[in-house]
Structures are given as structure tokens and as C-alpha cells.
Design a protein that fits this description.
The chain is built from 11 helices and 17 strands. It is α/β, with parallel strands linked by helices and about 350 residues long. It starts with a strand and ends in an 8-residue tail after the last strand.
């Protein structure tokens, strides 16, 4: 077994602290990675505190992982020692259902294996994530990181990037499309950057007027304060697509009303409690669609990384030490980060 050191929790009420654990031995189709950086996602906090009610303790969070290949199994051909690679939200899937066959492993009909808090398909043990010094992953779920991207700033692309990229691609965002992004956080700031790079007209919706300037810097053509009725009314019936990134319950109707006929609003934020139900007439009177989207498949994640490499797109980050993770969680809850914390895993000291 591979000895590992990381930060995690053994119950929902304690702060994260250093844990020692083991990972599986390298299999023929595995890649062993020394972790350099790991982004901090709101899902990490939800899981650590069991806010979704499905956490199996102990849990080591982290699914925005950048590292270098330390070793490969005998059947691995795509990677070699020293390669800069990434691991996102999945580390395995059944590989034989219709979803997997289409490259949509995130919708695996037998359930994909999460990078953390997931049950391994072969050993039956639980997976542990990227708040750690190393990880072992099936080679099909390892991603190549473009050499021109800053590794730390590329880490959030493995979740925040693909979570916004997949629906933007699915609903064919591009030139001539008017696109709204709800919320300017870890997901929202990537949504703006990607939609802008795809050639769309981009409007940010925020409850914070002070975020207007940042929205423009990130690529938005306009920022609308969603609590301002006149600003919202000016955009009624005009959007082709709206991407809602907010991870807290909020009314959806004010945004649905901004969609044109046949427009789509897609939810990617995952609140711990439900949104208020939307008015059905707001949907049926304009044939509008309310949809959801979950991360992305491995092929489209690589497509997104290559797109970002070609255009130099990275996340706006604040680097932290692993010892500051509990403070980072509290700041994240307050929206006090622009726009993603990334852990420098060099700060993790292994126990003697």
C-alpha cells in the first residue's frame, strides 16, 4: 500500500487536520501522482460537514488536482514519469454503460467513482482526495495539462472550469448568443471567461454592485445587480442561455423571466437545501427550459483544458497553505475570495 499524508476530518463537526492513510498499490492501468496543487471547491466544504448527508468518514476532500507523474503501471502508455497532469472530480466509472460509451462518465448509469468520498470499484474501499501529498488514479481519468498554463492557476479548471464549460458547450454558446452568468464566485468567474472566449455576449448577474468592475475585467459585457428591478426588467425576454452558478437557495423566477422563447437556464450550483420552486407559467408560456448539468466527461474536460491552453485562460486564485484550510472554508462561506483558493501542497509536512 502507498503511504499518504493529507488533511481531512473524521466527523462533521471538527476542523480539518492532518491525517495519515494509505492508497492502493499501483495497478497495471494506474498512474501515481505527486500532488503539487489542489483547488478548494464548495463541494469540499459540503462533504466535510456532511451537508449533503452522504459523507463516509474519514474523508479527505479535494478534486481540483495538479501534480507530476511519479510512477505508471505496466499497461499505461499515455503518461510517463515527470508529466504534468490533472485529476478532476472522477477517478473511475463502469466503462460499459451507454453514458460511458458516449464519453459522459459523469452520468455513468452505475455511478461514477468520486475522487473523494467514493467507493472504489475493485477494492470496495473509499477514495481520498487531493488535500494530500499523492494520489493513485486509473489512467483513463488522468488529464494532460498544457505546458503554457500556470499549474496552480490551472487547478480550478478541473472542477470550476469543466462545470461551466460543459453546459456552455451543450447549449451551443457562441457568437450571436446572449448569455447570462448568475453569481461571481469560483464557478461564475470561469463561466464569464469561457463564455467570453467562445464569442458570446456575456452579462453577469450579481447581488453586489461592487463586483461590476471585476466582471468587466473578466470579460463580461455588462453586470446587472439582480436586486435592482429596473436593471432586470431591461433584459426581460432577451437571453438565449443563463448559467446559474450560485450554491445557495434563491428564487429562480427572476432569471427565468429574462429568457427569450426557447431559452434555457441551467443550474450548476448545488445548494444544501432546495431552491424555491419556480412558477410553471414562466416556463410554459415561452417554452423555456430549466435544466441541470454535472461537471463533464473526460474527453470534454481535456477539450476544455486544450481550449484554455490555446487562449491562456486560467482561474483567478489565492494561494494558501494547507494549514490555513479551515480559515479558507470560513472565508469561502462569506464570499471572501477572488475567486478560488488553491492549496500549495508543498506546505504539507509529512509526519516523521
Amino acid at each position: 500500500m502507498l503511504s499518504s499524508t493529507g488533511y481531512g476530518v473524521t466527523n462533521a463537526h471538527e476542523p480539518l487536520s492532518q491525517l495519515d492513510f494509505t492508497r492502493r498499490d499501483l495497478r497495471a492501468d494506474d498512474v501515481q501522482i505527486d500532488i503539487l496543487y489542489c483547488g478548494v471547491c464548495h463541494s469540499d466544504l459540503h462533504t466535510a460537514r456532511n451537508e449533503w448527508g452522504n459523507t463516509v468518514y474519514p474523508v479527505v476532500p479535494g478534486h481540483e488536482i495538479i501534480g507530476r507523474v511519479a510512477a505508471v503501471g505496466g499497461q499505461v502508455r499515455r503518461f510517463k514519469k515527470g508529466n504534468l497532469v490533472g485529476v478532476g472530480c472522477m477517478v473511475d466509472s463502469c466503462q460499459h454503460c451507454s453514458a460511458c460509451a458516449e464519453g459522459l462518465e459523469q452520468y455513468c448509469e452505475n455511478g461514477f467513482v468520486g475522487t473523494y468520498n467514493g467507493e472504489e470499484m475493485h477494492s470496495g474501499g473509499m477514495t481520498y482526495g487531493g488535500y494530500a501529498n499523492n494520489i493513485v488514479v486509473r489512467d483513463k481519468f488522468v488529464l494532460s495539462i498544457p505546458d503554457n498554463l500556470d499549474p496552480a492557476s490551472a487547478a480550478p479548471l478541473l472542477c470550476a472550469g469543466i462545470t461551466t464549460w460543459s453546459p456552455l458547450r451543450q447549449w451551443q454558446v457562441g457568437p450571436g448568443k446572449k448569455v447570462g452568468i448568475v453569481g461571481l464566485g469560483g464557478l461564475g468567474h470561469m463561466g464569464i471567461k469561457l463564455a467570453h472566449a467562445m464569442g458570446a455576449q456575456v452579462v453577469l448577474f450579481t447581488t453586489s454592485p461592487e463586483k461590476r468592475e471585476d466582471a468587466t475585467r473578466l470579460g463580461a459585457d455588462e453586470a446587472v445587480v439582480s436586486r435592482n428591478a429596473s436593471e432586470m426588467e431591461a433584459h426581460r425576454n432577451s437571453f438565449d442561455f443563463i448559467l446559474d452558478t450560485v450554491a445557495a437557495p434563491h428564487p429562480l423566477d427572476p432569471f427565468i423571466e429574462l429568457l427569450k422563447r426557447d431559452g434555457t437556464m441551467t443550474l450548476v450550483g448545488a445548494p444544501a437545501s432546495p431552491h424555491p420552486s419556480p412558477q410553471v407559467f414562466n416556463l410554459i408560456m415561452k417554452r423555456r427550459r430549466l435544466a441541470g448539468s454535472l461537471i463533464g466527461g473526460i474527453a470534454e474536460t481535456q477539450e476544455m483544458l486544450d481550449f484554455c491552453g490555446e487562449r491562456g485562460i486560467i482561474s483567478d486564485i489565492e494561494m494558501i497553505r494547507i494549514q490555513d484550510i479551515n480559515t479558507a472554508y470560513e472565508r469561502m462561506l462569506k464570499g471572501d475570495v477572488k475567486y478560488r483558493f488553491v492549496i500549495d501542497m508543498a506546505s504539507l509536512k509529512q509526519r516523521a
